Amino acid sequence: MTTDALVVFTPTGKRGRFPVGTPILTAARQLGVDLDSVCGGRGICSKCQITPSYGEFAKHGVTVSEDALSAWNAVEQRYKDKRGLIDGRRLGCQATVQGDVVIDVPPESQVHKQVVRKRAEARDITMNPSTRLFYVEVEQPDMHKPSGDMERLITALEEQWQIKGVKTDLHILQQLQPVLRKGDWKVTVAVHLGDDTHPPKIMHIWPGYYDGTVYGLAVDLGSTTIAAHLCDLKTGEVVASSGVMNPQIRFGEDLMSRVSYAMMNSGGDQEMTAAVREGMNALFTQIATEAEIDKALIVDAVFVCNPVMHHLFLGIDPFELGQAPFALATSNAMSLRAVELDLNIHPAARVYLLPCIAGHVGADAAAVALSEAPDKSEDLVLVVDVGTNAEILLGNKDKVLACSSPTGPAFEGAQISSGQRAAPGAIERVEINPETKEPRFQVIGSDLWSDEEGFDLSIATTGITGICGSGIIEALAEMRMAGLLDASGLIGSAEQTGTTRCIQDGRTHSYVLWDGSANGEPVITVTNGDVRAIQMAKAALYSGARLLMDKLEVDKVDRVVLAGAFGAHISAKHAMVLGMIPDCTLEKVTSAGNAAGTGARIALLNTDARSEIEETVRQIEKIETAVEARFQEHFVNASAMPNAVDPFPILNSLVDLPDVSFNSGGGDATEGSGRRRRRRRG
Amino acid sequence: MTTDALVVFTPTGKRGRFPVGTPILTAARQLGVDLDSVCGGRGICSKCQITPSYGEFAKHGVTVSEDALSAWNAVEQRYKDKRGLIDGRRLGCQATVQGDVVIDVPPESQVHKQVVRKRAEARDITMNPSTRLFYVEVEQPDMHKPSGDMERLITALEEQWQIKGVKTDLHILQQLQPVLRKGDWKVTVAVHLGDDTHPPKIMHIWPGYYDGTVYGLAVDLGSTTIAAHLCDLKTGEVVASSGVMNPQIRFGEDLMSRVSYAMMNSGGDQEMTAAVREGMNALFTQIATEAEIDKALIVDAVFVCNPVMHHLFLGIDPFELGQAPFALATSNAMSLRAVELDLNIHPAARVYLLPCIAGHVGADAAAVALSEAPDKSEDLVLVVDVGTNAEILLGNKDKVLACSSPTGPAFEGAQISSGQRAAPGAIERVEINPETKEPRFQVIGSDLWSDEEGFDLSIATTGITGICGSGIIEALAEMRMAGLLDASGLIGSAEQTGTTRCIQDGRTHSYVLWDGSANGEPVITVTNGDVRAIQMAKAALYSGARLLMDKLEVDKVDRVVLAGAFGAHISAKHAMVLGMIPDCTLEKVTSAGNAAGTGARIALLNTDARSEIEETVRQIEKIETAVEARFQEHFVNASAMPNAVDPFPILNSLVDLPDVSFNSGGGDATEGSGRRRRRRRG
């Protein structure tokens, strides 16, 4: 007993007594401390770096003397000379216990390290990748005990790494024999560790010790763009990101036009399948080139997408998704091999598709759920992913509901007279002075407001070309707050509003946001048609959310999370003025950015998250808006801005919405003009 | 209790009491009686036909009255009118229990029926195919409970057939939705039932009830020919058999020349892989055409082959098999998908390769072991598969040993002066009159002996073209018995033997078996070179067997099984005279025909046999002849006919081998000439 020493690991606090001479790596393994190693303690890989601490540790009840670890040895010195080693670091497989000691395992030496996410409310990602590297020494063949080289490699993995029942594809068998001999029976293998239904599988093999990493792709396959993040499966780091237009756009801008294309054209679905796979392969080539890596090192990929994209990507005719009852061919998560999808990454690479929630609520919504985790929220959170369809999740740790609502493309700038995609030159922020009714705005590409000095110069190259989705939301909300737009969605005339910016436009009125005609540039107006388009979109979005609130029997939510690129740029106050989202404390309305893409990245880096989201999706209650009688009622009420019946007490405590009405049929128009009434708070 | 009736099933004797009104199929299932059904008792498939027996059954203690079953019903009548039904048969799902009854389940209604093998010592094959058909009714999609069509199909399989965790490939998903709707949510699916490492998998789907079957291939991939049996996976019946030359022959006649080709030519292994797969695809197309079936209905395939063929088929360079230590890339059984091997059967068809026993003892030898089951034998059996290499198994239920011995192609007629493949015109049987030294023979294509009336006419079309493997064995053995050939392998001169058929041929002598020169046809002689070639081959074969006997510490075997096409035609007595095989009671020397092919068929029809042979192969002790010192000693002794040291007591009790010696250097030649001595029996 006197030869045993106490070893305390931080940050876990795990501790145990070990005989003098025990390597730190061995001690860590026996205690279940997460200390990495690829070479299995042979002093080759240096992944097991640790930092011993010396002195008094009252907290642990230990005093660590200077000679608590064995002296610096030749293997460590060689490694340091060749590769460098941070001062104070030791190799855990070389340093042995000599006395009581406190050992810190730095994050980079942990297999299951945390990848930090920036947002306060977002959970960090715990690394648990599908595929890891293992260095093994394989027994040589013996005529007296004939067994295949593969069987001896499998035995080595089992004996040296406790990985049982490893399988392999033919491509590994085809290169195994020369690689084993080139490495003198020492090889590094990348092993996909498998899951409930798949055994572990050898993905790659290198002669000797391979001092590199393997990669995975997190892919957000959108109707418009395909975005991919290339991640290091060792560190979790995003090493390159890139996006391309979805080549299916030539078959139809939106989902339903693509479904129609498949219905109207024999083989149309196959054309679109080929197109999206080609686009994806171009993207993967591009991203690998950018990261300067061999595409064959990409051994895992996670895809998120809506149901139509999901089916077309898999080569399934989306016909049934175009009509009630919107039956998915398959709703479960899918685990495939890259070669089955003609993807040009590692041929045996695994491809994981998150489960679909329902016929209109796809794997992208599941990915949002994984990223934003409403099912783990203490408070009631509404998560909205705004795109051509809005996917809506509402719930907390007790229950989560989901639905989809057909918002149409207005939020993306389509169907808007001066609308455009969010690109340089587009008006993205708007303010209207409630007294003068004069606007000022910001344009993508410039940080200056249009009334600030230097603005003209700052937009000289881009010009002012149109208004994007977030811009139109702000414009409408500002018009509403300035008394230029009434609750029903009518723009007032110049007489009614007192500004010549309100101009006659056929039978309705428009508001001139910017007149560039003097310089031969566009006149950018907000027309009553624009208001109608946004009204339809926001009513669809709100009534979907409201329907879920009905189902949960609540009339307010604690938080709102806006996901999607659009959500990232939207102003919470303006959205609420329009009644896009339910009434909520402004600080509780946050943006999650591309939450679907983040969900894909989580599922890529942490395989536990896959079964987790599969279980979550099974638990989510799906609501089909199309067959819910109250949806229509909510929709009609939500056409008003903010709403015909739902009170918005928090909003009303923050802003005064003029009680104007510009209905030309009634006498209220002039009466209401310019009149402002302070609503009761409450 | 009074409403329960006793149901006794034959042939199993399983019995139980059931409430009146219970369908026979239900009773059978509850008792675990093997009664087939594809439609699950819906009166569609008629697979559950049974035969009730009436009257007194003292053995079972039952008296069955005429009304023991419910009356013939409309479903049964409709089936009988449409498809016919054997008199006395009922549909097990329609007929219900009304009183005590004895029910016979005919073989064709059993899933696990026995497929009878003709040979007395061979075990029948119990049907347990990988893939079976199931008719299911699938729940229709419901917007309120969204789930994929595939998930509902999987649920139906679980609820209606207790098949859990079914998976599928993309190609099924791609056709699922229209098929489900075409069949009005009733479909028949072919399910591969999986194994330890593979979950069950849907292979095929048909709308409504599919009244057909699915098929499997048992393929014997030989160096010279590829032979395939197409089997009905329902009945086990061989519906077509066919063979083609192995196209690899153009790269080298024998295995080692193909290994050399791969070594000498960059990409040579890939050329040979492509060639053999192309040949196989041509064969599969041919066999499917012959059987008039769609190749996509071939959902399973089992392959047996030697290690070099195994590696080349899988696309693995056989380089290592050409040199010690003869390391296999993999020795375990392989389970692959047809698409991975570019095979043109069902794309998701499973391909099973039996395990290899050692670097020189392949999956073909494993298949022979499966067919001949030495590991289940009570007596000690020697199984010899004679080809270019002889694979040799020796053992009984306690232990089995295996080795390979390089016999070369002499047994196949190669290296023989007048040798040819076994084809019409080849001499296959020979007798030599010990007194006159005159021969008579039979030729392939005729049943007459050459001295019988009508022989000339019967061979008019073929002529007498050469001598095949079994012919040369008989010729040599007859020459040995007639005193024309001595134990050392020398043919005597005309003077020594007293016949002018022994002619001078350079420095040695030849025996003229047939002189067709008068008609411009060949002169067929047995030369001393022919004797040497057969001596080498038979010495290799015998010394391999002898080595295994040493290892088991025995000097005799109870039985000898000759496998392979050559083994099917060989005469046991003649083989023993030459000392090809150990001394053994003649009736205990039997032919197993193409045992490797049979082993493949067993593994195809009974998936249990796969794990069984995998375990057997693990238990087999492998002996590498090349490194065994005693092999050379045995080889030298076995060069004599029958053997320089091993006594052949049983053989000697049957035949008198003249104690001649034609060594021209000694004085024994004339002395021994014509002298016959009766050896002691013993």
From TrEMBL, chains A, B:
Domain of life: Bacteria
One Pfam match: RACo_C_ter
Domain 2Fe-2S ferredoxin-type: 5-109
Region (Disordered): 662-682
MF term (GO), any: iron-sulfur cluster binding
InterPro entries per record: 2Fe-2S_ferredoxin-like_sf (IPR036010), 2Fe-2S_ferredoxin-type (IPR001041), ATPase_NBD (IPR043129), Beta-grasp_dom_sf (IPR012675), Corrinoid_activation_enz (IPR052911), Raco-like_middle (IPR041414), Raco-like_middle_sf (IPR042259), RACo_C (IPR027980)
Stored PANTHER family: IRON-SULFUR CLUSTER PROTEIN (PTHR42895:SF2), IRON-SULFUR CLUSTER-BINDING PROTEIN-RELATED (PTHR42895)
Entry protein name: DUF4445 domain-containing protein
Native species: Tritonibacter litoralis
